[in-house]
Queue: 2 jobs
Job 1
Amino acid sequence: MADILLEGRNLTMLYPVRRGLFQGLIGMVRAVDNVSFSIERGKTLSLVGESGAGKTTTAKSVLLLERATSGSVYFEGKDIYQYNKDQLKREYRPRVQAVQQNPWSSMNPRMRVKDIVAEPLVVNAKQSKKENYDRVVELLDQVGLKAEHAEHFPHEFSGGQRQRIAVARALALNPSLVVLDEPVSALDVSIRAQIMNLLKDLQEAHNLSYLVIAHNLATVRYMSHGVAIMYLGQIVEYGDTEDLFENPLHPYTNALISASDLKLPEDRDQNEKEIILSGEMPSPLNPPTGCRFHTRCPEARPECSKIEPEMVTVGKHQVKCHKFV
Amino acid sequence: MSKIVLEVEGLRTSFFTRKGIVKAVDGVSFFVREKETLGIVGESGCGKTVTGMSIMRLLPEPGGKIVGGRITLNGTSLLELSKREMRNIRGCMVSMILQDPMTSLNPVYTIGDQIAESVRMHQNLADEKMITNEVVSSLRLLQIPSPETLLKNYPFQLSGGMRQRVVGAIAMCCKPSLLIADEPTTALDATIQAQYIALFKDIQAKTDVAIIFITHDFGVIADMCHRVAVMYAGKIVESASTSEIFKKPQHPYTRALINSVPRLDRKDDRLYSIEGQPPSLMHLPPGCRFCERCSDSLEICSKEEPPEKNIGNNHTVSCWRVQ
């Protein structure tokens, strides 16, 4: 039996859209629509998709920055949406931390590194300044920085080093789950590998679970154990990373893989043509009926525009497409 | 062989700051032929954008200065032109696409007006109707659906991918012989990026334009470029045809860069990572610039700069290890 740390069940997030002088309600945006997933202890789940797919909104509902309109989040088997404020502060929030995409905006430029990294400790752990400082030095060491860096300000560091500081801050309270929102996409290519390796090492050392938000499939394959491919608020394909990349089923997954494959044109097989999708993702305010992908799908059939496909299990992963019903 | 459109020889661009001189581009030479795409790849701060800006002569003033070298575009030496003469060439013979379309378009003018500005400036068209025709045909070239209605739209009404196409239409409306694209796909989503690259291949086939593609993404290079120049700390360390770079990279930096990109077609247990960071361009080391981060450096590497060697097939490398 897998040891499930966190589970999202049927999460749906609606945002009202208001317009005009009297701010009349003109519709609801379904940013996240009936999304379910689970993360095992010590493992990584990645949410993949283009901008507007609902990845960040899903992560926000896990971090409780916003409550989902319906559905719930279970942490170690308990429904955290039933917790009161006090319980959340004591039992949930310290154990779930986040690292943001852009290390240039995620830190207060007027605070020293020691204060940035110690902030979660000051808020949550009641201990002396000396104890806090010792913990900061220990954390900096874990992420590959030196003790003397504690006295510096964020602007004195490069992007890679800043992201290390952000990771140190996230680890300060020994969390069980870290939400990583595009942890490497703001960094340089040669620095990305350093940070990805660091994150993997820390995961092994502390038995951490990660919820990674990413748009780069190659990064995802390297980092994660499970993948959920999102399109327009829904998960369209979900399963074990290796299985999903070896045997992608959904036409959207295939298009994404084709778009991010590092291959010379001369090395492609004759029948292995690059898939280029036409058009753009439709507005979530007015999503297409039936399968949401059918407007761009190269393999769309008549029923795709009418009936929404169910999530079905094929082999070791799940897919939401009429081809497999 | 088709003719050479642009030739850059020993280009050196420096920024004069209060703290000292920053040698952003330090002796860079390359050429681009008609119908050819040259990729310039490297990390941020390696000088790839400054190279592009030097060709456009759009360096920030005061401070940025071209201190040496020659840039020849279609037989004209760009560095000898006056500012006024350069204005006539810029946007007409050579144009540029920048990374973020939202900041390169003006939010208070319509799409049609912004494209027409370039047409008015460079083509002596008396009649408004002819100008509109030119604008529409450049939007068609970028495969923008229903261009006549789009003319009256403002940038905020378009999606990111469409905006970047409009920027492309401005760049292509005067049929330049050289297009410099500075990370044009970085701000776009994966599937839109694939569309954009396919579109530019198509445009190149129709118009014979030479393209310089500045990027840090090897995936884009593999798809789009014929030849590649790898830049590190203001210098080109290796240049060759795209397939040679991928299959037989010679410079340790090129190899490390290619190896540190995670691959989709195989599962890596651990990524190769280049330790450390590029040197400060204000205090460059005396020898090879990559020496400090190089895993197999020799004694000579820290003392003398390696010369550029041609190892055949127009494959050049600057490394003491390469014989």
Note: The CA atoms of residues 313 and 319 of chain A lie 6 Å apart.
Job 2
Amino acid sequence: MSFQEKRAIVSLISTILITVLYCAYMVERFPLGDPYSAEVFRFWGAFFLILIPVTIVAKIVIHILFSILNTLATQEDEPAITDERDRLIELRASTLALYSFSLGFFLAMIALATGLPPSMLFVILICSGVAAEILSDFSQFSMYRRGF
Amino acid sequence: MSKPRIRNTIRKLRFDHDEMTQQALADKVGVTRQTIVAIENAKYSPSLELAFRIARVFNLPLESVFTFEDDSQPTDKP
């Protein structure tokens, strides 16, 4: 298995792990009561504001750890260059992620238009964001696996 | 309609050039070894620039390294 395939798997697992742990931590802080109260919106604002830096930092740390462990285990260094095939694979994965998130955004707007509680909008946005990330990692793994 | 494929003779050419390794070829043309593997196995069609770079390593014209196969095209019969 190539370094890029392993990196995609690590990214996939870390995305799932970070999301599950963060959601488990935040769900206890969800304000109960009126679903249209300002507290609910404050909660979701904080949810996204904290989630973004937490995900970035956690992914950087996991990537560094993976690179070190992989080098120790296989004596294979991380590829120093990103070539045209890497860029094409990344582009295709990004496009798939964009489609996935766009669909989620569309569904979130439907939820809002049909009068569902605002929390549903944010839950759909989170789910589509995670789905986009998972789809991107999985498609990268799949494309590296089969050649392109 | 079947998918057109770009075939190549890179594996044979590497062998003929003092058994050049995939990594050595990758370093010469500026790509990763995995990309050379994918090209050799006809799983990835390189860009025109990369194809020229590979041909230049072996001092051969492009058509001696890469050939285009399209099964959908009718073959000329006498």
Note: Chain A has a mean pLDDT of 92.
